[in-house]
Amino acid sequence: MRTAKITRKTAETDISVEIDLDGTGRYDIATGVGFFDHMLDQLARHSLIDMTVRCQGDTHIDDHHSVEDVGIALGQALADALGDKRGIRRYGSCLLPMDDALVRAALDLSGRPYLVWTVDFPTQKIGGFDTELVREFFQALSTHGGITLHVDALHGLNSHHIAEAAFKAVARALRDAVETDPRKADAIPSTKGAL
Ligand SMILES: [Mn+2]
């Protein structure tokens, strides 16, 4: 079973994450940050990774710790559920339009964290949500999931659309990368023999 459950408690956040890589995109998300919940719904729905996420965080300060720490826990859950990565496709990419926004995501489940992020938001806020936290989330996901992740916004006028297109693009790329390849189901997809 390619599943994982992570709990993570600090002075700033108390988080539990459960995922199933071979799911159908079911989600049950409650982070205390409304816009972030909306984004994680997209991540689950379009990756077909089932996700249950709970976060009780210090949102009386701001949303930073909650968003970053959920990224850490989700990254850890992905790495845990992937195990030795036997049989996976490893790479995934997606060019995703959402109205004015066009976002490209390309990723490698390499075990080597690296984030390239060229996404500019025309506004600092989406409702009460700080747009700079979108990068914080993907940085944490990349670092703790061992993911080389490139996200580039090629076009966009509306911050909500740009953020949502980014989450959907990464979701679709993840869907391809975590999927097992029936032609190489027993092999670890690296000439090194390990990822
Ligand atoms: Mn939306």
Enumerate the distinct ligands: manganese (II) ion
Mean pLDDT, as a whole number?
A: 97
Helix content: 25-40%
The biggest sheet amounts to: 4 strands, mixed
What's the CATH C level?
Alpha Beta
Secondary structure: number of strands: 10
GO cellular component, one term: cytoplasm
EC number: 4.2.1.19
GO molecular function: imidazoleglycerol-phosphate dehydratase activity
Subcellular location: Cytoplasm
Overview of the molecule:
This protein has 195 residues and is of the alpha+beta class. The chain has one domain: Imidazole glycerol phosphate dehydratase, domain 1 (Ribosomal Protein S5, domain 2, 2-Layer Sandwich). Helix content is 34%, strand content 31%. It has a four-stranded mixed β-sheet with strand order 1-2-4-3, with helices on one face. The radius of gyration is 16 Å and the shape is globular. Manganese (II) ion is lined by residues 38, 160, 164. It is found in: Cytoplasm. Belongs to the imidazoleglycerol-phosphate dehydratase family. It catalyses: D-erythro-1-(imidazol-4-yl)glycerol 3-phosphate = 3-(imidazol-4-yl)-2-oxopropyl phosphate + H2O. One of its GO terms (biological process) is L-histidine biosynthetic process.
